[in-house]
Amino acid sequence: ENRYSEGIEACRQAIDLARRLGRKKDEAEMLSTMARISAGMKNDADADRYFRQAVAILQETKDVRDMAFLSTIYGEMMTFLIDTDRPKEALETARKRESLIGRMSKMPGPPPGYIDQQYGFLYAKMALLLANQGQAKEATAIYRKYKALDFARSYTGRSYIVPYLLAAKRYSEVLENNSDCLREYPGDTISYDYLAML
């Protein structure tokens, strides 16, 4: 508890400095950190407020680097909303993130593969959320979007989609997917990832 409080106070001091220097991204970063700390303390109302303040600071930005950080905040906020049993708000946040990634995709600056990866993380999480809410048709539609991505064929992507495949009872796909992933670990018998795949 004491360390959490120290973390909040350090963030507040950093926010004051960021505001004086006009550094919006740094201010938003500190607010999102405060949100995560508050969530860890089970202060959900504070976490919600800090996430929304962080989003408000960056949501009108035209700077692609700030937009990339906003995408990360949306992802963290979506996880928080799922963890606090607010699926409707989590989906609203997901749609905002999807729109943001779409805007970034039309701008110069993002490195190769970045946009594809952002969509991948988003769609895997969205598909799982929709499946868990009994919206199988919508989840399948998002999963199709996911499958069209290069990310879906990467090791990280194949690992990240497993929770959705299990929720959707697509067990044969899970087995095929995990068998492909296990090939990435020839002779590996001790890593956590290897054990999780088994």
Characterise the protein shown here.
The chain is an all-alpha fold. Helix content is 77%, strand content 0%. It has eleven helices and no strands. The longest helix is centred in the N-terminal third of the chain and has 20 residues, at 2-21. The mean pLDDT is 91.
Task: Give a nutshell description of this structure.
This protein is mostly helical and 198 residues long. 77% of the residues lie in helices and 0% in strands.
Task: Sum up the structure in keywords.
198 residues, mainly alpha, 11 helices
Topology:
Layout: H1 2-21, H2 24-40, H3 44-58, H4 64-83, H5 87-105, H6 114-132, H7 136-147, H8 155-160, H9 162-167, H10 171-182, H11 192-197
Helix pairs in contact: 1-2, 2-3, 2-4, 3-4, 4-5, 5-6, 6-7
Number of helices: 11
> What is the number of E strands?
0
Query: What is the chain-wise order of helices and strands?
Result: HHHHHHHHHHH
Q: Helix content range of the residues, please?
A: over 70%
Rg, Å, rounded:
19 Å
**Overall geometric form:** globular
Poorly predicted spans: none
Class from helix and strand fractions: mainly alpha
- Main beta sheet: none
Give the strand content.
under 5%
Determine the mean pLDDT: 91
Q: N- to C-terminal separation?
A: 37 Å
